[in-house]
Design goal:
The chain is of the alpha+beta class and about 290 residues long. It has a domain at about 200-280: Alpha-Beta Plaits (2-Layer Sandwich), CATH 3.30.70.260. The protein is about 35% helix and about 20% strand. It is built from 7 helices and 9 strands. The chain has helices at about 10-40, 50-60, 70-85, 100-110, 125-130, 210-220, 255-265; strands at about 90-95, 115-120, 135-140, 165-170, 185-190, 200-205, 225-230, 240-245, 270-280. The strands form 2 sheets. It has a 5-stranded mixed sheet. A 4-stranded antiparallel sheet has the order 7-8-6-9. α1 (about 10-40) packs across α3 and α2 (about 50-60) packs antiparallel against α3. The longest helix is centred in the first third of the chain and has 33 residues, at about 10-40. It is elongated, with a radius of gyration of 22 Å. The two termini are about 40 Å apart. Bound molecules: prephenic acid. Prephenic acid binds next to α1, α2 and α3.
C-alpha cells in the first residue's frame, strides 16, 4: 500500500526542520571560520580566491536536482564574502562609472551585500585604492582590444606593493546583472593561487614590435598555451610595445617556461611579468559542468 501524500502542514513542518539545520550549520561554519582566521595568522591573508573557487567547484560537482547551481553558488558567494569579513577588515573599490553599472552588479554578486563597496571612475583609481590599502580588492574591466589606456600596464612591475589579478568575475554566471556582458577582474595585494584549472596573465615588454603570431610561436614552443592577446603600442609612455597574454595554466616568476620563452625571443624581449591570474570560472568553455 502506498503511503498517503503528506499534508501541507506536515511538509511545512519538514521545511522548518530543514531551515533549523541549515541555520545551525551556518552558525557553526561562522565559528570554524573564526578559527581559520586565527590559524592563518601571522600572514593572515583573509581573502583566498583560489580556495573560494575550489569550494564552489566541489559543490558544483556534487550538485543535482531542480535548484539552479548558479543560485546555489550565489548563496555561497554571499556567505564566503561575509565569512571573510568576520576575519578582518574587507572593502571593495569597483570601477563602476554611471554608464557601467554592470560591474557594480557582478561585484555585489561576488562579494556580497554586506561588504563595504565604493564605485570609482577609472580602473587606475581602483588600482590605487588597493595599493594604498583603502580597499582589499579592486574590480577592473576585463582588458579589451581597443583600450586606449590599458590598466594592466600599471601592474607590470615586480614591486611587492603592486596589486595582482586574483579572480575573474562573474565566477558563477551573470544572472540578472545589468550591463553589456563585460566581465571583470579582481585585483588584490596577494599572489594568485594554483587551483588545478587556472589562467595566468603575462605582461610582456619588447624593444620593438613583433607580430602576435611570433609571440604565440615563442610562447607555445616554451610550453605555454595562449588563450588571448591584448596589445598597446607603448608610444604614449615612451616605452616599448606591450602585450598582455593570457595563458592556460598557473605560471609564476620562477616558472622555467618563462626562461625558455625569454631564450626563444632573444634580445628583443625586455621583460615578462606575470601580473596574476585566476581560477577558471564555473560554466566557462573549459569547464564541462555548465551552469
Ligand atoms: O579557507 C580560508 O582561508 C577561509 O578564510 C575560509 C573562507 C570560507 O568561508 O570558506 C573564507 C574566506 C576565504 O577567502 C576562503 C574561504
Amino acid at each position: 500500500m502506498s503511503s498517503p501524500t503528506p499534508s501541507l502542514d506536515e511538509l511545512r513542518r519538514e521545511i522548518d526542520e530543514i531551515d533549523d539545520k541549515i541555520h545551525d550549520l551556518i552558525m557553526r561554519r561562522a565559528q570554524v571560520v573564526e578559527l581559520v582566521g586565527i590559524a592563518k595568522r601571522p600572514d593572515n591573508q583573509i581573502v583566498r580566491p583560489g580556495r573560494e573557487a575550489t569550494i564552489l567547484r566541489r559543490l558544483a560537482a556534487r550538485h543535482t536536482g531542480p535548484f539552479p547551481m548558479q543560485v546555489l553558488a550565489r548563496l555561497w558567494r554571499e556567505m564566503i564574502a561575509t565569512f571573510s569579513r568576520i576575519q578582518g577588515p574587507f572593502a571593495i573599490a569597483v570601477y563602476a562609472p554611471e554608464d557601467r553599472r554592470g560591474f557594480w552588479d557582478i561585484s555585489r554578486d561576488h562579494y556580497g551585500s554586506s561588504v563595504p563597496m565604493t564605485a570609482v571612475n577609472t580602473p587606475a583609481a581602483a588600482i590605487r585604492a588597493v595599493a594604498d590599502g583603502t580597499a582589499t580588492v579592486g574590480v577592473v574591466p576585463m582588458p579589451e582590444e581597443d583600450d586606449h589606456d590599458p590598466w594592466w600596464r600599471y601592474l607590470m612591475n615586480q614591486d611587492p606593493k603592486t596589486p595582482r589579478v586574483v579572480a575573474s568575475l562573474p565566477f558563477c554566471g551573470r544572472g540578472n546583472a545589468r550591463g553589456d556582458d563585460r566581465d571583470a577582474l579582481a585585483i588584490a595585494l596577494i599572489q594568485h593561487e594554483r587551483t588545478g584549472d587556472d589562467r595566468t596573465l603575462l605582461g610582456i615588454e619588447l624593444t620593438e614590435d613583433r607580430s602576435r603570431g611570433r609571440l604565440k610561436e615563442a610562447l607555445e614552443a616554451a610550453g605555454l598555451a595562449t588563450v588571448s592577446f591584448r596589445s598597446w603600442t607603448g608610444r604614449e609612455s615612451g616605452g616599448g610595445p606591450l602585450h598582455l597574454v593570457e595563458v592556460a595554466d598557473y605560471v609564476d616568476l620562477q616558472d622555467k617556461r618563462l626562461s625558455a620563452f625569454a631564450a626563444n625571443m632573444g634580445d628583443i624581449l625586455l621583460r615578462t611579468t606575470p601580473i596574476g591570474g585566476y581560477a577558471v570560472p564555473l560554466g566557462s568553455s573549459s569547464d564541462p559542468k555548465k551552469l
